[in-house]
Amino acid sequence: MKRGINVLWYGIVALLAVELAWLALPVPERWVELYYTTGLFALVITPLVAVQQLIPISMSALVTLVLILCGLVSALVGIRRARKREVPWRTIAWAGFKWVTAAIVLIHGWFLLTFGVGYRREPIESRLQLASADRVTRSDLDATMDDMLAVITDERQNPEIRDERGALRSIRNAMGDLVLEWDGHEPPLPEKVKRLPDGLLVLFGAYGINSPLLMEPHVDGALPSHAVVSTGAHELAHVAGFSGEADATLAGLLAGLRADHGYARYASALAAYANLCAELNPDEQRARFEALPAEALNDLRAESEVYQRYTRDVTQSVFQPMYHSYLVTQGVDEGIEDYSRGSRLFVNVWQKGLGKTPNESQD
Question: What does the alpha-carbon distance between residue 236 and residue 245 come to, in Å, rounded to a whole number?
Answer without folding.
Answer: 12
